[in-house]
Amino acid sequence: MQIFKTLLRVRHYEMDALGHVNNAVYQNYLEQAAIEHSEHLGLTLDIYQESGGVFVMRRVEIEYLRPAVAGDTLEVTTWLREIRGTRAFRRYEIRKQNQEDLLVTAEALWVWVDVKTMRPRPIPNMMLDKFLATLHSGATN
């Protein structure tokens, strides 16, 4: 399994009334990590546009374990658990940089949809091959 890591800095406007990262903001972090992972594999916005499709998050489950605050640098780790047909199941872990304690764990279901109809369709083979290779290789970032 190939993992992908990216660093994100928590911004002040992402705080809630308690001074912690607002729970809803974590979904943005998950989306950003997925985009960067895709780009790392060579699957850029141009490739997506040429294929006429896009991944959309259909379902996400997030477990909040510890808070983050403005100024923290977060390490977001993501990997594909499974990909087939129209669906990709992606796992996530979020930690403060250089720390082991988990702040968040999550799993998201991404579905490949046609941009014109917004209906699910099979993930293109070229993309599927690149993503499937991550299920059978070692770690990277």
Short characterization:
This protein is an alpha+beta fold and 141 residues long. It has a single domain (4-135), classed as Roll (Thiol Ester Dehydrase, Chain A), CATH 3.10.129. The protein has helices spanning 25-40, 45-51, 125-135; strands at 4-9, 53-64, 73-84, 87-96, 102-114.
Overview of this protein structure:
With 141 residues, the protein is of the alpha+beta class. Helix content is 24%, strand content 38%. It has 3 helices and 5 strands, in the order E-H-H-E-E-E-E-H. The protein has a 5-stranded antiparallel beta sheet with strand order 1-3-4-5-2. Strand 4 and strand 5 form a beta hairpin. The protein is globular, with a radius of gyration of 16 Å. The mean pLDDT is 95.
